[in-house]
């Protein structure tokens, strides 16, 4: 049974690895001997330097395979193309999916949110995770082992500082996760999400000064760290018995 949770030698696809949380997940999984397919949309330099860092850090212990893919996850065609690249470069589909790439323009009021903004947010945050899950699930089923983690948000539970478009996309992720977890359990595939709030050192929230009033209201008195989100992702992918859970990581915020 120990092999259930031994992830070394597995392949993880992490979308949005050019951002704060995705990069932290990549570092933690690489340290556990997991091969990586990392995606970015616009920030190639941070993804390339992350890959270089990880390759040189882990070159002594094992030979880590890392691929980098440019993909706008609002495009089904680009996601399909990414899977073709992964097939070529790794010879298989991912065993672990961390669907983390996300977008959220801070527009609090419904009357200010255009239909285009709503549709785009849903496409990036929700529809992409559906397409990505479809792209990995046949492989996971056939080997009777898989881990899927969606990056939701406190917004999916009604909190946070964003508008209803972002809340809908993230709440939708939790609904989809709960359904998938019951459908896929018989194939030994766990499906969970992490719902962070106010994580600093990210493109979304570089530091507390970006959101002074909100930061002042965090019960723990500080922003969360990308590495703390990655801790939860690592726990989920190494704890296959946990499935169907949305884990709030919000410094005491509700
Ligand atoms: N920071 C927080 O407090 C917080 C709270 C709740 C949830 N989250 C969620 O955590 C996830 C990671 O965000 P982060 O905090 O690490 O912020 P971040 O540093 O801004 O990272 C966002 C990532 O998503 C990628 N991305 C954005 N739009 C994309 C698109 N259309 N196609 C493909 N990739 C796209 C970005 O790629 P490029 O940079 O290459 O363009 C980047 O890698 C997101 O899903 C976000 O909603 C964050």
Strand content: 5-15%
Order of strands across the widest beta sheet?
Answer: 3-2-1-4-5-6-7
- CATH H-level superfamily: NAD(P)-binding Rossmann-like Domain
User: Which word captures the global form?
Assistant: globular
The poorly predicted ranges are none
Reading off the top of the CATH hierarchy, the class is best stated as Alpha Beta
Bound molecules: NADP nicotinamide-adenine-dinucleotide phosphate
Distance separating the two termini:
37 Å
Class by SSE composition: alpha/beta
According to CATH, what is the topology?
Answer: Rossmann fold
How does this model look, in words?
InterPro entries: NAD(P)-bd_dom_sf, Sc_DH/Rdtase_CS, SDR_fam. Keywords: NADP, Oxidoreductase. One of its GO terms (biological process) is secondary metabolite biosynthetic process. It is a single chain. The protein has 254 residues and is α/β, with parallel strands linked by helices. It has seven helices and seven strands; from the N terminus they run βαβαβαβαβαβααβ. It has helices at residues 20-31, 44-57, 76-90, 115-143, 164-184, 212-216, 226-237; strands at 11-14, 35-40, 66-70, 96-99, 146-151, 189-196, 246-249. Helix 1 (20-31) packs across helix 7 and helix 3 packs parallel to helix 4 (115-143). The longest helix has 29 residues, at 115-143. The protein is globular. The model has no long low-confidence stretch (mean pLDDT 96). Residues 16, 18-22, 40-43, 71-74, 100-104, 124, 151, 153, 196-199, 202-205 line the site of NADP nicotinamide-adenine-dinucleotide phosphate.
